[in-house]
């Protein structure tokens, strides 16, 4: 498999709007060649009898059924708040926004 050329790296850099120096083109060409080689090796290992997976172990999400239960009223929830406004907790302004 031919390696990634400087011209291909320069083209990718232009598409990505990156300005690369001449020595960086050579450096990235070597690195991209190694990355593409590693991906190719992974493709060689994957066989027809190996199903695609997102995780090596089977995962099951444990969910409980939603059920309506009594909860606090706004007044009860805000009863211990040092400051409140319009049935909400009032906190100090931190971003300088209105």
Overview of this protein structure:
By secondary structure, this protein is mainly alpha-helical. It contains three helices and two strands. It has helices at about 5-15, 20-45, 75-80, and strands spanning about 85, 90. A two-stranded antiparallel sheet has the order 1-2. α1 (about 5-15) packs across α2. The chain is flat and about 70 Å long. The N and C termini lie far apart (about 60 Å). The relative contact order is 0.08. The mean pLDDT is about 85.
List keywords for this structure.
98 residues, 2 strands
Largest sheet: 2 strands, antiparallel
Mean pLDDT: 87
Q: State Rg.
A: 28 Å
Element-level helix/strand string: HHHEE
Strand order of the largest sheet: 1-2
Q: Identify the overall geometry.
A: flat
Helix content class: 25-40%
User: Class by helix and strand content?
Assistant: mainly alpha
Report low-confidence residues grouped into runs of 5 or more.
none
Strand content: under 5%
Tally of individual helices = 3
Number of strands: 2
Q: Roughly how many Å apart are the termini?
A: 60 Å
């Amino acid at each position: 498999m031919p390696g990634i050329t400087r011209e291909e790296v320069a083209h990718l850099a232009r598409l990505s709007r990156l300005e690369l120096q001449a020595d960086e083109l050579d450096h990235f060409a070597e690195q991209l060649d190694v990355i593409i080689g590693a991906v190719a090796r992974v493709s060689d290992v994957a066989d027809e009898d190996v199903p695609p997976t997102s995780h090596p172990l089977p995962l099951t999400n444990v969910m409980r059924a939603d059920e309506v239960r009594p909860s606090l009223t706004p007044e009860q929830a805000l009863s211990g708040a040092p400051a409140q406004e319009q049935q909400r907790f009032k906190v100090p302004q931190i971003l300088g926004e209105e």
